[in-house]
Amino acid sequence: MLDYLIVGSGLAGISFAEIALKNNKSILLIDNKSQNSSRIAGGLYNPVILKRFSEVWKAEEQLILMNEFYDLLEAKLEKKFNFKLPILRKFFSIEEQNNWFVASDKKNLAPFLSTKLVAKKYNSIDSPYNYGEVLHTGYVDTALLLDAYRHYLVNNNLLVEEFFNSGLIEFFDFGIQYKNIQAKNIIFAEGFGLHKNPFFNYLPLDGTKGELFIVKAPDLDIDVIVNTSVFILPLGNDLFKVGATYNWQDKTDLPTEEGKQELLERIKEIITCDFEVMQHFAGVRPTVKDRRPLIGTHHERKSLHILNGLGTRGVMLGPAMAKALYDKIENGIPLDREIDIQRFHKRYLKTLISDRP
Ligand SMILES: Cc1cc2nc3c(=O)[nH]c(=O)nc-3n(C[C@H](O)[C@H](O)[C@H](O)COP(=O)(O)OP(=O)(O)OC[C@H]3O[C@@H](n4cnc5c(N)ncnc54)[C@H](O)[C@@H]3O)c2cc1C
């Protein structure tokens, strides 16, 4: 009998797996590689939403948990994947500079926005108005992390690589049975794959497609992440990750010509040197209309739980949301109302009514 059967081994699934293991719980993960959001993500973490100059929800708390989580995982997997790097916002005008200083004066943003302009000149970037530096930022190499974690799961017989069919779940007093697996709880961490889950697909998980590039640009010499309408992240060996686009209509994970053109245009707004596109990726972010995660327990089936809706910020949110769900299940600590799926209770009731013959 397992404590937790976890469906999905993206950032959400592995965040929950780790907190369960830390508490000596038994786990098994099931994944069929049907979603690739975590794998292809930019992996950036940044406590400030620069577009609107607002603080990421509970940013400070999330940063602490996130750093603890990735430090422990780096030690366990003996690999480095959390790279602390400044994010520099390139200014295009004096007005943008002024907006930065107004924002950095706000009490909640002051710890995250440096008040010193960065005047450093990088090859192949014109920056007459300089940059603003966001503090406590960096990126997680998510592909490296997921590969190392998969290796760990396989070596310990903790991973089944197949499609999880929710229709085959049988319910008992002790929990559930799925094929020959018995478990007290199931954690659904399926990302955009949630739409195939009949227990939770009433939830408003919209999905936002994103595309990004790996480019080669030998004449670009940045050692920081440069952010404007897209980010440029140095990977070493003249390679840079550039992204990402936002598309609310297309829900496939196929790279498109439209995405390619948009990224090419955006890059040319920032850098003046030649570059070559080496790889082009696309994936669907599990975004929710109200921009809050989807965490909680099924209204009737108390052994079914969900950890989803990490949206555009899975790197920072994953560890914090996994902890909140674990604390709710094991220690009875109520979830924050803003993330609890209870907020969609009326929607759930409506599906019950419309399902009646
Ligand atoms: C282009 C792009 C750029 C991004 N950039 C950033 C960024 O810079 N910083 C950041 O923090 N976030 C970023 N994100 C968002 C981030 O990737 C997501 O928040 C995060 O990956 C969500 O993780 P998840 O585990 O919930 O979902 P996923 O990564 O989608 O994982 C779900 C897993 O469940 C599995 N699965 C689903 N259904 C089933 C089933 N029925 N049976 C078996 N397995 C199943 C899938 O195979 C998959 O492995 C980006 C996303 C995209 C697309």
What can you see in these coordinates?
- This protein is of the alpha+beta class and 357 residues long.
- Helix content is 29%, strand content 25%.
- Strands 1, 2, 10, 11, 12, 13, 19 and 20 form an 8-stranded mixed sheet that branches. The protein has a 7-stranded mixed sheet with strand order 8-7-15-16-17-14-18, with helices on one face. Strands 3-9-6 form a 3-stranded antiparallel sheet, covered by helices on one side.
- β19 and β20 (304-308) form a beta hairpin.
- The protein is globular.
- The two termini are 37 Å apart.
- Residues 7-13, 30-35, 37-38, 40-45, 163-164, 189-193, 196, 210, 212, 243-244, 283, 285-286, 308, 310-316 line the site of flavin-adenine dinucleotide.
- Flavin-adenine dinucleotide binds next to α1, α2, β3, β14 and β18.
Task: Provide the list of bound ligands, each named once.
Answer: flavin-adenine dinucleotide
Classify the beta-strand content into a percent band.
25-35%
User: Describe the biggest sheet?
Assistant: 8 strands, mixed
Average pLDDT, all residues: 95
Which stretches are poorly predicted, pLDDT < 50 over at least 5 residues?
none
Report the radius of gyration as a whole number of Å. 21 Å
The amount of helix comes to 25-40%
Span of the ends, CA to CA: 37 Å
Count every beta strand, where a strand is a DSSP E run of 2 or more residues. 20
Shape: globular
